[in-house]
Amino acid sequence: MGKSERKTYFVVQAFVEIDDVDHPIPEEPREAPSAGAAKSLAKALAFEKAGVVAFSRTGDFELGEFEDAVILESHGRVPHLADFYGD
After folding, report:
1. Which of 13, 41, 47, 69 is the most exposed, having the fewest neighbouring CB atoms within 10 Å of its CB?
2. How many CB atoms lie within 10 A of CB 5?
3. Cβ contacts of residue 32 below 8 Å, gap of 6+?
């Protein structure tokens, strides 16, 4: 068995408003190549989305083991990340 690899993933999660729903709905998350790219994308999306958050998580994708998310940038209505990505 090969050694598993820990990696930091940079993610941008946008949220939209939908009629008759009292909370923002998540769109498909987007992976970014770096923290800077994630922040830039979050800033750009903030003008057209109800909310957007850029965050990083370090862990092993194959094992499904991750550290807590680190918020890099947040704009608008954004639910607590634990609601989508665990504690």
Report:
1. 47
2. 10
3. 10, 11, 12, 38, 41, 54
Q: What is the pLDDT of residues 16-43, one digit of tens each?
A: 999 888 888 999 999 999 999 999 999 9
Reported pTM: 0.82
**3-class SS at 60?**
strand
Contacts 24+ apart (CB under 8 A), 47-50: 49/14, 49/15, 49/16, 49/76, 50/15, 50/16, 50/17, 50/24, 50/76, 50/77
